[in-house]
Amino acid sequence: TEACLKAVDAADTLNAFVHKTPEIALQQAKAADARLAAGDAPAMCGLPVGIKDLFCTKGVASQAASRILEGFKPEYESTVTSKLFDAGSVMLGKLNMDEFAMGSSNETSVYGNAVNPWKVDDRQLTPGGSSGGSASAVAADLCLAATGTDTGGSIRQPCAFTGTVGIKPTYGRVSRWGIVAFASSLDQAGPMTKTVRDSAIMLGAMAGHDPKDSTSADLAVPDFEAMLTGDIRGKKIGIPKEYRLDGTPDEIVKLWDDGTAMLKDAGAQIVDISLPHTKYALPAYYVIAPAEASSNLARYDGVRYGRRAKLAAGDGITEMYEKTRAEGFGHEVQRRVMVGTYVLSAGFYDAYYNRARRVRALIKRDFDLAFEAGVDAILTPATPSAAFGLGEMSDEDPVKMYLNDVFTVTVNLAGLPGVSVPTGLDAQGLPLGLQLIGRPWEEGDLLNTAYALE
Ligand code: GLN
């Protein structure tokens, strides 16, 4: 813990940790020592971790990287962080992210972007988003692991950009209680780590039924680590042709082919599959996620949490809402709230929101049919490119940024588990990742396949 605290202090230029909690860390480390001395060694005992700023941590600033939550210190602990603490984890602090987890580059954060520890010459790169601080901190060895959340790719894309491993569990596997909500039907928390084994261990500590989250599944949590045998003989791996997009760089295509060959060499059976509704996933996601966000973010009214704008004499409640929300939310968040309220409005609800929901059901059915045909896991690229430069995607062209999520959003729409594993480097020496998508509730099997790829 002391070594990690030092590393965190020495890495301020990465802007990964946005609130440091050394006193809590040292106190938790002492408690972990005492547990170990008493012969009690829970899974995460004494392991220093970082926590994404989206998780409510009792008495510790939890701002979702937004100005509107300035000064907010929750009275309670999220289920995930309290499970991690029960399992012996040590919290070093809170990690940078895109504001309310909306973004793919960490550049919408009120704290400014986190930086990728990987670089080419002097070009500064994004660690990805929204869990950019988590990815940066793990890749730079500031902590042993970090929590992330993934609504459309926010664990998997930053992992791919930083050479780390992360899993978005099946929807319902991990409790959302105490995690600031973005799009409730898509959000899931998961681990971001150096290795597949670490992800298996940490997922085990984070997962489990929680009566406080009505969407959390009442299922036993298997010993994911024990399932890592590396034996994938006879497993059927699907390669979906719709993910072979025009314009995908050759190095990504090669990475995918190499990964396919590796699984085949390990004894898996490779089959070509079709997921015909894939091309509608991104537009459906960018209707459904903003719709849910606009509703979730209605609670930031300047009364109950965080920051209230300065009011002028004569301002009433409407001015208070307007000024607080105009000052408190950044551009991307405002854009999502506007898109969301538009697609939910009486005149456009059927044309956009309902249509997107129907498309979502078709996307899920594509996966169901593949799994019913015996496919155990699906292999795809995690991202369409390696990490891009900071400032390269402008706020004026949000769709360019949204295209980053083309391979990841399908998994959230279908509620499936998806893991991102680093499997190669591009011509410039930057990490690239592949994605494996699994059957619902079979994270153990999925991690084992990822283990064979690692
Ligand atoms: N990049 C996607 C978005 O901006 C996904 C974000 C996430 O998974 N939290 O919505």
TrEMBL record:
Catalyzed reactions per annotation: L-glutamyl-tRNA(Gln) + L-glutamine + ATP + H2O = L-glutaminyl-tRNA(Gln) + L-glutamate + ADP + phosphate + H(+)
Domain Amidase residues, every copy: 1-447
GO terms under biological process: translation
UniProt GO molecular function: ATP binding; glutaminyl-tRNA synthase (glutamine-hydrolyzing) activity; transferase activity
ATP-binding is among the record's keywords: yes
Enzyme Commission number: 6.3.5.7
GO cellular component: glutamyl-tRNA(Gln) amidotransferase complex
Annotated catalytic residues: 52, 130, 154
Keywords: ATP-binding, Ligase, Nucleotide-binding, Protein biosynthesis, Transferase
Enzyme superclass (EC): ligase
InterPro entries listed in its UniProt record: Amidase, Amidase_CS, Amidase_dom, AS_sf, GatA
HAMAP family xrefs: GatA (MF_00120)
Function: Allows the formation of correctly charged Gln-tRNA(Gln) through the transamidation of misacylated Glu-tRNA(Gln) in organisms which lack glutaminyl-tRNA synthetase. The reaction takes place in the presence of glutamine and ATP through an activated gamma-phospho-Glu-tRNA(Gln).
Family listed: Belongs to the amidase family. GatA subfamily.
Protein name per UniProt: Glutamyl-tRNA(Gln) amidotransferase subunit A
Provenance organism: Thalassobius vesicularis
Name of the encoding gene: gatA
